[in-house]
Design a protein that fits this description.
Chain B: This is Anti-sigma-factor antagonist. Chain B: Residues 2-113 form the STAS domain. The complex is a heterodimer. Chain A is an alpha+beta fold. Chain A is 34% helix and 33% strand. Chain B has a single domain (6-134), classed as STAS domain (Transcription Regulator spoIIAA), CATH 3.30.750.24. Classes of the chains: A alpha+beta, B alpha/beta.
Chain lengths: 148, 137
């Protein structure tokens, strides 16, 4: 099964990663840990309160997706420096059933679970860059970036 | 197990969320509030979320559930104290919190609950009056 790639690949030109950490997402308390770790890095980068809240909320949605639909997985947190601007990149990965129809999954209000169906589309709106790759039977990877 | 305290103030139940909400805690709050409304015959629920640094779609769903459940049990719910950054993020996320009444702070929320309770009481009294009038005719 080929990976479906949505939106442009993230441009790595002149971009340096400064700090990386990976967190396991296996329970709903891990979702809280992810939120706290994202908040810490966002503060460290110098994000304002609104930007902090947006990236933490997006992270919360995606971490819950990883748990509920992916059956658990990981998130990689990276701080980025591109020229003078700084950013935060979050990569959520799971080895779950994958998403058969990404366009449908990105629609507001679409859900196969118990949520409101705002998770994926909402996280996309809260991020500056968004990329999703998914293969049925193999898993899903969602990458978001928020720049300062 | 950790629980969010529910205080009773006259006809109202008061909840102040001061910890990071994880999913089970939110579900427990929903259950506890439902039980307390029934036990205490409360007519209003005030939920202060000024301590919440984020409201994601899960917490949004729980708040909506609580508002709907309380309505079924003849109680009104008002959510107060949302931080500005949380409000901005909620709108961008696409959550409209339909069916949830909000007020700026605890004081205004209490006033809203009291006035809506008076309205319903007045309506009941008005209906009774009309019924009495009809009886006389």
């Amino acid at each position: 099964m080929k990976l479906q790639i949505r939106s442009l690949p993230l441009n790595g030109v002149q971009m340096t990663m400064q700090k990386t950490e990976t967190i396991d997402i296996q329970s709903s308390t891990d979702v809280v840990l992810v939120r706290q770790a994202v908040r810490l890095l966002a503060v460290e980068i110098g994000f304002g309160l609104v930007d902090q809240t947006k990236i933490v909320t997006a992270a919360s949605e995606l971490a819950r997706n990883t748990l509920d639909y992916g059956g658990g997985g990981t998130v990689k947190l990276e701080t980025l420096q591109e020229g003078r601007r700084r950013g935060l990149r979050l990569t959520f990965e799971d080895r779950g059933p994958g998403i058969p129809d990404i366009d449908l999954a990105l629609k507001d209000g679409f859900t196969t679970g118990s949520g409101l169906g705002m998770g994926l589309s909402g996280a996309k709106r809260l991020a500056n860059e968004f990329e999703i790759q998914s293969a049925v039977g193999e898993g899903t990877r969602v990458i978001i970036v928020r720049w300062k | 197990m950790e629980r969010i305290p529910i205080l009773k103030m006259g006809n109202f139940l008061l909840v102040t969320i001061q910890v990071d909400m994880y999913d089970r805690l939110a579900m427990t709050l929903q259950d506890d509030l439902t039980n307390r409304i029934t036990q205490t015959h409360a007519h209003g629920v005030l939920i202060d979320i000024s301590g919440l640094e984020i409201v994601d779609s899960f917490i949004g769903r729980i708040l909506g559930n609580i508002a709907r459940i309380s309505r079924v049990l003849d109680a009104q719910t008002v959510v107060v104290g949302m931080q500005p950054a949380v409000a901005i993020t909620l709108v961008e996320l696409g959550l409209s919190l339909t069916g949830i009444r909000t007020a700026l702070n605890v004081e205004k929320g209490m006033a809203l609950l009291r006035s809506s309770l008076n309205e319903t009481t007045n309506q009941v009294i008005a209906t009774q009056w009309r019924a009495d009038d009809d009886a006389e005719d």
